[in-house]
Amino acid sequence: MFRSLALASLLMATAAAQKLPLRTADRPLSFFANKGQAAPDVLWEARGNGFTASFRRESFVLRIFPARAGAKIIEQKISLAGIDPGARIEALDALPGKISFLPGSDSSRWVQGLATYSRLRYKNVYPGIDLLFYGNHGTLEYDFVVAPGADPERIRLRVDAAARVTERGELQLGAGREGTLHRPLLYQNIEGGKKTIAGRFASLPDGDVVFQCGSYDPGKTLVIDPAVSLLYATYLGGLHDDEAYTMALDSQNNAYILGKSASQDYPISANAYQSARTDIGTYTYNMVLTKMSPSGVLLYSTFIGDGTDLPYQTPVITADGQGNAWIAGVTTSGTYPVTANAYQSTFPAPANPGGTALSPFLSEISPDGSTLVYSTFFAGPTGPYYNVLGIAVNGSGHVYLAGAADSGLPTTPGAYLAAVPSGNYANFLAVFDTTQTGPAQLLASTYFGYVGVENQYLSITGMALDASGNPWIVAHTNWDEAPTTANAIQPNGGFNYPLYCGIGQQPGQSDGGYFAKFSADLTQLLYGSFLSAGQGGFIG
User: What is the mean pLDDT of residues 68-81?
Assistant: First the structure.
């Protein structure tokens, strides 16, 4: 649950959080000082998945960036009315990481090496009362901590003029359904556990909002924790093992959950493309796709393929503007379902007799889950190694894939890198127009990041499209020769020196981040840069 006044706006305005990779969600939310990267009156900042928070002496402001393009950015300012003149802001619990801001090529505007902290405290914001901000799995939470003998009714929140307190003691923010805070959670820690105290919001004649507290022990610390609406929470599965791979949102904030199920009673909709599991066994899984409405109603659920068709690695998913779900991954099975209009309907042969063949796949499922609209393999004549790590759909319905592939993957004329030596592999980008037929469906395809040096690599960790339809990739690398452009923030990786000589690690094998921009037709590298100090790093 998000626990922030303005993050309630995020929940109600977007109806669901954005797709959040675990790597991002598990990183601690960090607070850092303003050293020129923000407005002069901002003292501290925090940035999370889909939001930024700025902290001023008497207020804090949260800006919410909605999941869908074109939706408005929501900004909510909460002022602390009548705070104590001696109040001060202090950071607590230093974190090991540093944050840098590098806007443009003018180094005089760069702010580098900011220390980060896991908590931010407004000390004595009111007499005997602290306001504590902290992160919880990438979200922002806060508590008012009332010391013994202090008066919690001294706390006064000044919010938007359209905010109002309901008869139930809840606080509604904004003129629309931008956020609703339930009655605050109040508690005291006592011997034997936590004692809950009755509490509610109340409004004063001047419009300020205060907390009304029930009976509590004034000789003990009181914690006030404003809590926001939980839109929905649900279990999803059957009697046996079920597992979610990943999820995505569409422009209407419907959620698409892609996973696998070994449950014969997994909830499947009546209009499902595939209503039953195949190759049934207690621990035989089938891939499954479920679509949920913003309020938690199951819109459809369907199996895809049989028990041999499970993705070889974690698949990826997105949704286009019409509500079609696009999934991509790698399969070891030639029985994975493909459609009559497939770009490639033939599964590759094993590279070695008796070996296992692999092929990327790309599939489109209709908005109601009833039809496999499009599905294809995408591989060379043999398939010893493939991985799919990113998928995106542009406004014209063209589908971009990013991943890694062995030699022999189909590429297009003028490709940035048309081939890699036989028996080697590199990253790839490909663009499909599935409204075309046959070979014309592959609009563009290229390799990039071929290293050709033992113990060195460049591996994609993510991809996105900009407003012009140009794909950006982020990667993890220890290859100092990765291609960069003249305007790179960091033209050299600085990897070629002994970092540690021990078992399993060779001299010069330090690593870091890399990111690049390609033209929409995949013929040009428009931008490439390292982003690390050559002593270890990761972006994705």
Answer: 72
Q: What is the pLDDT of residues 7-23, one digit of tens each?
A: 222 222 232 333 333 33
CB neighbours of 459 closer than 8 A, spacing ≥ 6?
Answer: 404, 427, 475, 476, 477
Integer Cα distance of 515 and 460 in angstroms = 9
Compute the average pLDDT of residues 227-242: 71
pLDDT-based confidence at residue 262 (cuts at 50, 70, 90): confident
In which element (H, E) is residue 257 found? strand 255-261
The CA-atom distances, in angstroms, between 371 and each of 271, 274, 295, 368, 453 are: 9, 9, 24, 8, 45
Q: How far apart are the C-alpha atoms of 478 and 469, rounded to whole Å?
A: 28
Give the Cα separation of 44 and 37 in Å (integer).
Answer: 10
- Which residues, at least 6 apart from 423, have a Cβ–Cβ distance to it below 8 Å? 406, 407
Assess whether pLDDT exceeds 90 at residue 503.
no
Contact by Cβ (8 Å): 118, 135: yes
Q: Tokens 């605050």 correspond to what residue?
A: 184
In the chain, what are the domain boundaries?
Answer: 5-225, 242-450, 455-540
Taking CA atoms, 25 is separated from 19, 452, 520, in Å, by 10, 34, 30
SS3 107: helix
The SS3 call for residue 288 is strand
- Residue 336 C-alpha from the chain's centroid: 28
CA-to-CA distance for 415 and 519, rounded, in angstroms? 10
Cα distances (angstroms) measured from residue 512 to each of 127, 462, 482, 489: 47, 15, 11, 14
Strand pairing partners for 529?
A: 515
The pLDDT assigned to 456 comes to 81
pLDDT in tens, 401-421: 999 998 889 999 999 999 998
Mean pLDDT of 66-77: 64
Residue 12: φ, ψ to 5°: -85, -30
pTM for this predicted structure: 0.66
Count other C-beta atoms under 10 Å from residue 518's C-beta.
Answer: 24
- Beginning with the edge strand found earlier in the chain, give each strand of the sheet holding 286-292 in spatial order: 242-249, 255-261, 286-292, 298-304
Name, in order, each residue with C-beta under 8 angstroms of 61's C-beta and a sequence gap of 6 or more: 6, 53, 54, 75, 76, 77, 78
Question: One-letter amino acid identity for 327?
Answer: I
DSSP H/E element including 23: helix 22-25
Beta strands 44-48; 31-33: pairing state? antiparallel
* Cβ–Cβ under 8 Å, residues 65 and 50: yes
Distance separating alpha carbons of residues 259 and 247, to the nearest angstrom? 9
Residue at 475: amino acid letter: A
User: How far is residue 199's CA from residue 147's CA, in Å, rounded to a whole number?
Assistant: 17
